[in-house]
Amino acid sequence: MKGFIGRASPIFMVVLFAACTSPAVSPPPATGPATSASAPTDSPAAPVTLKFWVNTSTPDDPAIWTAAVARYQAKYPNVTVELTPLLFEDFLRNMPLALDAGTAPDIASSPTLAHAQDRYVKAGKLLDLTEIAEARGWTTNIDPEIIAFNNPTVTPRIFGVPWAMSTVGIFYNKTLFDSLNLTVPTTMQEFVDVAAALQANDVIPVSVGGRDGWPLAHLWYQLIHTSTPYDYLTKLTEIDHDASYNDASLVQAAQIVADWYEAGYLDRNMLTTNFQDASAAFVAGRAAMTVTGAWQLNDFSTAPEFEARFFPMPQVDPSLPWHVGGQAPFDDLIIPLGPNEAAAVDFMDYLLSEENMIEFWNDGEIVPYRFATPPAAPTLLQGDFYAAMQRTLPGYFMDPYNPKVGDTIYSSLQDLVSGKISAQEAMDKVQAVYLQQSPAE
Amino acid sequence: MAGLRSVDEDPLRTGRPRGSSSGRSKRVPIAPYLYLALPVLVYGTFSLWPTLQLLLLSLNDWDGLGPQRFIGIQNFVELLGDDVFWEALTHNLLWMVGAALFPVGIGLLLASLLARSATFGRTALRTVYFLPQVLATVAVAVIWGWIYDPTFGAVNTMLTMVGLRGLAMPWLGDQTTALPALFITWTWVQYGFSMVVLLAGMNAIDEVFYDAAKVDGAGRWHQFRHITIPFLSGPLATVVLVTAIGAFQLFDLVFVMTRGGPGTSTQVLDIYMLENAIRYSRVGYGAAIAVALSAMVWFFSILYLRARGTFRAER
Known about the structure:
The structure holds two protein chains of two kinds. By secondary structure, chain A is of the alpha/beta class.
């Protein structure tokens, strides 16, 4: 029997690891802060080393962070910032464990996941930034509504401040469009016509990383934000059971996804294509369009040999306000409780400063800073993004608010395009899981 | 029996030192316990204690950060009504049945060919056949992902070359073929282990039995059926058990190749456990899945060993 226990034990190492760590309260700050956290300062008083974790979507992303860290360290030589880039899922796995074990970083650029952040706050692991944000002018320089968007469960308190914005839509191969005399579609019918024309020219109209689930869900989010009233979607994010995922308008959006797949407008191999491969298909010119967001702005500004541009997904119901799924503030800067809180606040203050925001903007990020005079867009693609965000309204990624519902959306949409179930059945599946979730407290 | 020392006379068992009379002080030797202490400590620390913690965790509701809340067997009750859990379990069970047949069968066939025939380059072939076993699973998953790729993969390319383009398909993207495609990959990795163990077992069989059988007129099949297989019952049991348990430890291959999709068509318990414990912040529920998983491994192991014991007793 011992042998069996020994054999069986590796399979639940992850859970065992969690089991071995007690849900103990993190240790209190060992010493007083080097400087007052709320008041702006020129530099920390004593030499300090800050552990800084950043969520990255690709290994190349830390470039903007290494540059920011270098600028800060040049300005304040007594501060050393140890940068640790973590891919999205690694970040989500490691941060709770580190918070629990008392080994969390001093400051982090965390994925904006209301659900995860809410947990960190409820466990008392994060520094409350409400007063600091006001004293340092963050709530003046960044629209408070944008900050509130990322702090939905703790509003009006602030535990995270976004440093970048994103929107999701369609990147397209303008060179190819021009050669085929295609113009940017502004209505659903025009979009379908363009897709059909591309298909007739033996080009994959839209590449989607359907194997990963979430890129397919992003396409659906685009559609539900103009098939369904925004307030209704807000209720779904709040796990308000007055709203339901199998509402006719959400089913309609799912049906559009199925129809486009069936018609060949979406890559027929998308269920074996992950996010990276879908992007690669676009960059290589095999696909004329791809559905993704601002996190690929830099890649698509430089990698393709053609001119890549961007437009927002046309509206399903033009009578509804044009909200865009995933047009939202991006990652949050958060500060776990610890001995270096004050120095971390100073560093965060720099990251959110106009000086750094301009650098980020020039590096291709869409920043939430309210510039007195907006700087010129460094690329046409970035200009497209900025213009799109001026024309449209914020919207949700539906998955972060409840990852289990999110995963069910992924798998149901995969089932749908596989032809295993109908659009109604796909949404019924999501609704069944949604009903098992508890409303936000 | 007079010449043998009885158990009662063994100083290690009676606790009496050699040469001491029964009337003298009873000193318990500590040496055996010291020898046992280290393995017991290691086993207790790294196996028993975490297992106990896991059991306790499965009785709690815990998000991984806040306080734990004791909820008794509620997690297990919820498991019973969880469709994804049952689907994942079905996949694991199907995999286990397949694991007991295909990798072991292929390993047995190859071992027979290599052991009893004068094949040229046997050592080289053994190495080649065993090679997949030593490759990192993630590397295997990536390579087979390319092989199955619908656009440039070897499978579809070969089908097209031989005029069967109509059969080309997205193997990992189709709900009906994704699980079998994964299983083929896993079989490719696993058969080498079966082959090596069974080959070692075959090499240990005395040639005299085969010679005697030949004299009696037994052909190759009868030699295999009545000599090889009975002598291999021990190694076969080991191979079947280890391979079948491996079916419940599926994670990396599925995670890299399909992540349980498309839909939930390749979902397995280990991935579902991880999703619950980490992604959904339901550590207690994840622990309950782990407990259920280990209970099944134990159940099938005991069942199999009992059956094997009965079989051997009958023989």
